[in-house]
Each structure stands twice: as structure tokens, then as C-alpha cells.
Amino acid sequence: MMQSVSGLAAAAVHGIDFELSNLGLGYGGKLALRGVSGQFAAGSMTAIVGPNGGGKSTLLKGLLGQLAPMQGSLRCRYPRAALGYLAQACEVERDFPISVEDFVSMGLWAQTGALGAVSDAQRAQISMALATVGLQGWQPRWIAELSGGQFQRMRFARLWVQNPPVILLDEPFTGVDEPSIDVLLQLLQQWHTRGRTVLAVLHDREMVEAFFPQALALAGTQLAWGASADVLPSLAARAGARRRA
Question: Which of 139, 165, 183 has the alpha carbon at shortest distance from 76?
């Protein structure tokens, strides 16, 4: 895994992208997550951590507007359509007959519309995005031909052309090879230094410590939220207490 950049300067923070107050979210009238209060500042980079079933993906769905609050409130600075989102890879149909270029071009829908033609300038954007993630020249290939790491690189390229102010990632490195992880972490850091807000559901504590200054720990409720150096020990202590119980 690549090493973090020493002394990386965070982008200037201007405002709050999400404000949560005693937020509760769930499905079918049953709460899956409750009691979440805090703010995601513009330009922040936050890892969302916790045990499986702890509400991490549920929180992302709430931030995206896919789930309405059952308790409390959630305010978003941007229209939801402006947010960039990468669902878990298992939720994406990899056998769909579409080329790499057409898949990445979906990041331009806000400009082209679902059926709009892609201009030469936009094709140049797609080429640059693919080169950025190490897939230059792959435009005509079918997405089914890609390995797991290549597939995830392609999905990041779609975010690159979308150029959203806020990027939400749900377990973006699961099943991805180490070279691809290094490339994608570098891209996340570039987005962060350019003032993008990055929120990622992660399980790798070492990665969180090295690359994510902020962390939010969830286990059906909010355990801790703040600097990763403060949040991760509280999560580890809770896991140890559960093992001893």
C-alpha cells in the first residue's frame, strides 16, 4: 500500500456540507441507525467505520436522500443530484453490455442528459480520466473484460468526469488489488487537496490512520466522531469489551 503524504495540507474549509441532528434512519419503519449528530465540513475527508450491520451504508443512503429521516434531521448543502456516489461493487451489474467509454460517460449525464451525444471535448475528458486511473486506451473494451481492480478504477474515472463537490464511497477497496488501491488512494488525496469532501465506508484501520484525518464510528448509533487518532481507540476498546463479555 502506498504511504501517506507527509504534511499533506487540507483544503480550506468553507461551510458545512451535511449537518445531522439526532438522526435516525431505517427500513420498513424500523430504525437501523439512531442518535447521530454532527457536521461534515466542506473539504473534509472522513472514514465511516464500525462493525458490519452498524449502519454505515444506511448513513450514506440517508446523506444521498435515498432514506428519509425517521428521527431528527439531516441538512445537505447541495442538491442530491450533485453528489458523487460509489456503491459497493457487488451492487453493480458487471455483465451489462456496455463499453468502458460509455460507462465512464455516464458521469457526464448532468451535462449531456441520458441520451445526449458526447462531444469531442468530453471524449477528451473521458480519456484523461481513464489515463488518471491507469486505463488509457481501454475505451472500446467491454466492462465484463475488466478485473476487479480495473473495474473499480473505471468507476473512479466516472467520478472524475462527474467532478462532484462531495464524494461518498461505500467500501471502495473491497476485493481490489494493492496496485489499484494505491492508485485510487492517490486520487482521493488529490480530490481532498482540491477541496472536495470525501466520505468513505472503510474496514482497514491502517488505511484510516494513514489517509483519513477524520472518522465517524457507528454501531447502530454514534460511538465517536472526530479526529481519527481519537475515534479509532474508542472503537477498538468497544470491540475488546464485547469479546470479554
Answer: 165
pLDDT exceeds cutoff 70 at 203: yes
Nearest to 88 by CA among 1, 203, 187: 203
pLDDT tens track for 24-44? 999 999 999 999 999 999 999
Domains of the chain, residue spans: 16-83+166-245, 94-163
Task: Say if CB 108 and CB 89 are below 8 A apart.
Answer: no
User: Each residue of 70-119: pLDDT tens digit?
Assistant: 999 999 999 999 999 999 988 788 888 999 999 999 999 877 765 668 89
List all residues 6 or more positions away from 235 whose beta carbon is below 8 Å from its beta carbon: 49, 50, 217, 223, 224
Cell triple for 197: 469532501
DSSP 221: B
- Looking at the structure, give the CATH architecture of the domain made up of residues 16-83+166-245: 3-Layer(aba) Sandwich (3.40)
Residue 168, strand partner residues: 85, 199
Residues 6+ apart with CB under 8 A from 196: 11, 43, 164, 165, 166, 167
Q: Other C-beta atoms within 10 Å of 231: how many?
A: 22
